[in-house]
Design goal:
globular; six-stranded mixed beta sheet; about 50% strand; mainly beta
């Protein structure tokens, strides 16, 4: 089955940067769009960014547009999220997941996912 392992989180100061990674296995990685989500207690899950199967198309939530960059390395079955200009409101547990198809819309519009990884916690201090 699909295994997703997020890493790269930690404590970062406001305005700082970090890069998250998502190692995927158990799926034909390059066939599917991928995305990042974040969870905040009391607010729930929020879409962050999506990338098409080849990496040619990306889409971002307004809250992170211009600050975060999603990318993928299909040879390594790995998804990345480069986070810059971090704000305290970016504090969350970040998760990756797989779209239902090849395009970014298959991530953004997906109502449910088969499984989730453990996530990686990002804490941005003010």
């Amino acid at each position: 089955q699909v295994q997703l392992v997020e890493s790269g989180g930690g404590l970062v100061q406001t305005g700082g940067s970090t890069r998250l990674s998502c190692a995927a296995s158990g799926l034909p990685f390059s066939t599917y769009a991928m995305g990042w989500f974040r969870y905040v207690p009391g607010k729930g899950r929020e879409f962050v960014a999506a990338i098409s199967w080849s990496g040619g198309t990306t889409f971002y939530a307004d809250s992170v547009k211009g600050r975060f960059t999603i990318s993928r390395d299909n040879a390594k079955n790995t998804l990345y999220l480069q986070m810059t200009s971090l704000k305290p409101e970016d504090t969350a547990v970040y998760y990756c997941n797989v779209g239902s198809g090849a395009d970014t819309g298959s991530v953004i519009g997906r109502a449910e996912f088969d499984s989730w990884g453990q996530g990686t916690r990002v804490t941005v201090s003010s």
